[in-house]
């Protein structure tokens, strides 16, 4: 195996390399990470439209009488706070140095109007790596990926089937700190659906993300001795499916009588519930790619050579009616890089109702822990 890896790396010395961007650790709002990343079958609100865009048209059970409804989420990640910041974010066997830095942020918004929904999201991920001392100028490599997405969804058959699509435009900016950066841009999409039988206590969903290839834009810098720019950035396809089941007196899929959404009638019910959810996913191959962190260090390790599979499992309960929700979960992060093992994550968190000012506000605190990885996430959003 070692000989094969050396041959693979050496064969690429004479050509520009491609970087595989695989989102191993969860990039999602706190409420989704707290449930172990489960969302494909649950699919409600702006929190995880990039897992299943059908969520933008899914009316929350607490607002099933409103003709229009908005939801949003703002998230900032704090990585490495619980350890010594020597994180292996890509799970490729290489830990970050003490002066390396990684920043993740995510915002999302959706509007449900009648039986249609529309959403927008943006995520930003910035990797900064010190390749050698002193840590300045050409000794600092940077990789920034920003993804903007627009989604639309529609309800069918009395809101029992919801279908959604999302168009994504990723832009990468890569290079050394003191030099011009190379821009790469691509386009891709996600389709998703949810089945939520009226008055039932379960939902089923599925989603498919297309592969994306980010090509370099004309006029960028060329390779230099000791530093090779990526030719492309490759995002693999992913197929996911999942389900959720709710226990307790709170209705999960309340039926809305025809025209009822325009009357403003008030639905009153007990808010107590226990939600259990499970997602399964398969991720496709990429061709002759390396991980982001390996490229930053110019130490090209093969990634994405095989199909990988994983799962996410989570639970959520409102333990104090209209005040406090608790969440817990786990997920398996498949290893994409050669020679490393899959990684288990444990997640948990809470959501606190802050009160109403124009909308009902909430505060989320979430943690995601794994081998060579920890993430503390704080979120402000809307309370449901």
General description of the model:
- This protein has 384 residues and is mainly beta.
- It has a single domain, classed as Outer membrane protein transport protein (OMPP1/FadL/TodX) (Porin, Beta Barrel).
- The protein has helices at residues 2-11, 30-34, 292-296, and strands at 17-20, 68-79, 101-113, 116-130, 140-156, 161-176, 182-185, 188-195, 202-209, 212-216, 230-235, 238-247, 274-283, 289-290, 302-303, 308-320, 324-333, 343-357, 359-370, 373-382.
- A 14-stranded antiparallel beta barrel has the order 2-3-4-5-6-8-9-12-13-16-17-18-19-20.
- It is globular and about 70 Å long.
- Mean pLDDT is 84; it is low at 1-15 and 260-266.
Q: How many DSSP helices?
A: 3
Architecture per CATH nomenclature, i.e. the level-2 architecture: Beta Barrel
What fold name stands as the CATH topology?
A: Porin
Q: How many E strands?
A: 20
Spatial sequence of strands, sheet with the most strands: 2-3-4-5-6-8-9-12-13-16-17-18-19-20
Structural class: mainly beta
Estimated share of beta-strand residues: over 45%
| Oligomeric description of these chains | single chain
Main sheet overview: 14 strands, antiparallel, barrel
Order of helices and strands: HEHEEEEEEEEEEEEEHEEEEEE
CATH superfamily: Outer membrane protein transport protein (OMPP1/FadL/TodX)
Distance N terminus to C terminus? 51 Å
Low-confidence stretches: 1-15, 260-266
- What value does the Rg take, in angstroms? 22 Å
Mean pLDDT: 84
What count of domains describes the coordinates?
Answer: 1
Helix content: under 10%
Please give the CATH class. Answer: Mainly Beta
Overall outline: globular
């Amino acid at each position: 195996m070692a000989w094969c890896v050396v041959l693979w790396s050496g064969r690429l010395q004479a050509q520009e390399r491609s970087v595989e961007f695989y989102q191993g650790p969860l990039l999602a709002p706190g409420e989704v990470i707290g449930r172990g990343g489960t969302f494909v079958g649950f699919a409600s609100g702006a929190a995880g439209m990039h897992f299943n865009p059908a969520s933008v048209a899914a009316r929350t059970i607490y607002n099933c009488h409103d003709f229009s409804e908005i939801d949003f989420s703002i998230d900032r990640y704090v990585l490495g706070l619980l350890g010594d910041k020597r994180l292996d974010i890509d799970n490729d066997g290489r830990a970050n140095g003490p002066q390396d830095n990684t920043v993740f942020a995510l915002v999302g918004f959706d509007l449900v109007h009648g039986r249609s929904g529309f959403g927008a999201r943006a995520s930003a991920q910035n990797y900064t790596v010190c390749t050698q001392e002193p840590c300045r100028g050409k000794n600092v490599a940077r990789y920034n990926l920003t993804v903007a997405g627009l989604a639309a969804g529609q309800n069918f058959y009395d809101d029992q089937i919801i279908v959604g699509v999302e168009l994504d435009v990723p832009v990468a900016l890569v290079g050394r700190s003191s030099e011009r950066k190379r821009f790469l841009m691509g386009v891709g999409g996600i389709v998703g659906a949810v089945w939520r039988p009226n008055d039932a206590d379960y939902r089923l969903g599925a989603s498919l993300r297309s592969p994306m290839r980010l090509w370099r834009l004309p006029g960028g810098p060329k390779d230099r001795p000791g530093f090779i720019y990526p030719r492309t950035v490759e995002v693999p396809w992913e197929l996911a499916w999942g389900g959720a089941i709710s226990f307790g007196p709170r209705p999960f899929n309340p039926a809305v009588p025809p025209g009822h959404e325009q009357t403003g009638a008030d639905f009153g019910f007990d808010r107590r519930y226990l939600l259990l959810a499970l997602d399964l996913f398969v991720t496709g191959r990429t061709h002759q790619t390396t991980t982001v962190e390996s490229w930053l260090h110019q130490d090209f390790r093969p990634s994405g050579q095989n199909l990988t599979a994983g799962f996410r499992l989570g639970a959520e309960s409102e333990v104090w009616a209209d005040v406090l929700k608790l969440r817990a979960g786990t997920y398996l992060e498949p290893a994409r890089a050669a020679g490393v093992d899959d990684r288990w994550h444990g997640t948990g968190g809470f959501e606190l109702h802050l009160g109403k000012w124009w909308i009902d506000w909430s505060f989320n605190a979430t943690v995601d822990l794994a081998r060579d990885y920890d993430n503390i996430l704080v979120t402000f959003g809307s309370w449901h």
